Amino acid sequence: MEMKRRLLFFHLFFLLVKLQTSSSTSCSSSCSFDSEPAYQQQEKDRVLELPGLSVNVSFEHYSGFVTVNEESGRNLFYWFLEAVEDPSSKPLVIWLEGGPGCSSVGSEAERIGPFSINPDGKTLYLNPYSWNQGFSYSSNPSEYLTNGDKRTADDSLVFLLKWFERFPQYKGRDFYITGESYAGHYIPQLAQAIVRYQSSTGQKPINLKGYMVGNALTDDFNDQLGRSEFLWATGLISDQTYKLRNTFCSHASFVHSPENCSKISDVITLELGNIDIYSIYTPTCTSNVSDSDIPPKRRYVGNINEEYDPCTLQYSGIYFNLPEVQKALHVNPAKWEFCRPAIYTSWKDSATSVLDIYQELIASGLRIWMFSGDTDGVIPVTSTRYDIDALRLPLASPWRAWYDDGQVGGWTEQYVGLNFVAIRGAGHRVPATKPKLALVLFKSFLSGNPMPSLLP
């Protein structure tokens, strides 16, 4: 039986991507749940139907808001999709998107969720590689300009504690955190917050077992070094630009770059030409619908396209802004955007490195995997390998190829406390560019088994 039919899965669309001006019209019936029994809140959050879906599905799904800060009116949106079969026995997996300032709802429609959007932006089809087989907001607009790593971790912990109160039947279930890109910060920081909270309180409402991050921003120095080498080695930039980038960007923040590094980024944009830097060997979207909110030189740490159809985010932009779709997901009328530039540009605190958190969590015994699509030019495989090398972990199993259907799917190396997997031909957004290989990866991670070899 396929793993896609064996797990519980929910998305936490927790980045502030939905502007509202009044708390009374922001999240319909789902803002608070303390005043009524959990089962009543669950029923209010149940999604009865999705516009554009012409087939019946055999799993339940829920969406709504959880208030994480009453005073400021911060509310986090979730979309929870149960397993197709026997959901009562399956683990819980949460997916976090990067940015900072991007919504995980785009991941549901593009890569890992059961519902994919057709080019008309109005109808859906079922994703054969779904991993189960954000409309978050603040009622105070100034909150969008004061977010950062620490508050994101704190709010996400509050969200999870409250979510498990709303869905108490899932308390104690094995729980895993997954995501990509700038979620390379969110995920270990949230895992650390969970471990420390439960250690200090003596309670264990969240049965955290591990986490997995892909093409993840981890350490600014290593990631900048790896990116420079990748861009040069793949022939995307000139020798002169490579040297200048190493000079001016080697210690630069990925989020708040100094002016001299930003100027080099402008030069790189010109030298790259019209390619998708998130998947360097696949076509770009030539649709008339453009993602105008993303400046070419600044591109988010967690964005964009691939060969199957490089315009999928445009389809999502149409679908999730349909009034009937927002109503079905218990969201009052609002503008949905995959990424919100104001959040990115005003991000307050961005750790220069989370490697110290890795050391702490490896010692706690969590299952930790890092994966990398090897055609990503934003946080490339070279960056992730420098990050892992900096941890100085003992080698448990040497570098080798892994296989799917008799073909090399990528390469893997196991360390004491961490497993690394490269995905052949995948871009920054691995489940979008190589969905079948991503599902193989996901099965292996959840089972705790090594990536498959050629021999059975």
Q: Overview of this structure, please?
A:
This protein has helices at 38-45, 105-112, 149-166, 183-201, 220-233, 239-249, 259-272, 312-319, 323-328, 341-345, 355-364, 381-391, 430-433, 435-447; strands spanning 8-13, 61-69, 74-81, 92-96, 115-117, 124-126, 137-138, 174-180, 207-214, 367-373, 395-404, 407-415, 418-423. The chain is an alpha/beta fold and 456 residues long. The chain has a single domain, classed as Alpha/Beta hydrolase fold, catalytic domain (Rossmann fold). The longest helix has 19 residues, at 183-201. The radius of gyration is 21 Å and the shape is globular. Belongs to the peptidase S10 family.
Summarize the structure.
Keywords: Carboxypeptidase, Disulfide bond, Glycoprotein, Hydrolase, Protease, Signal. This protein has 456 residues and is an alpha/beta fold.
Helix/strand layout:
Blueprint: E1 8-13, H1 38-45, E2 61-69, E3 74-81, E4 92-96, H2 105-112, E5 115-117, E6 124-126, E7 137-138, H3 149-166, E8 174-180, H4 183-201, E9 207-214, H5 220-233, H6 239-249, H7 259-272, H8 312-319, H9 323-328, H10 341-345, H11 355-364, E10 367-373, H12 381-391, E11 395-404, E12 407-415, E13 418-423, H13 430-433, H14 435-447
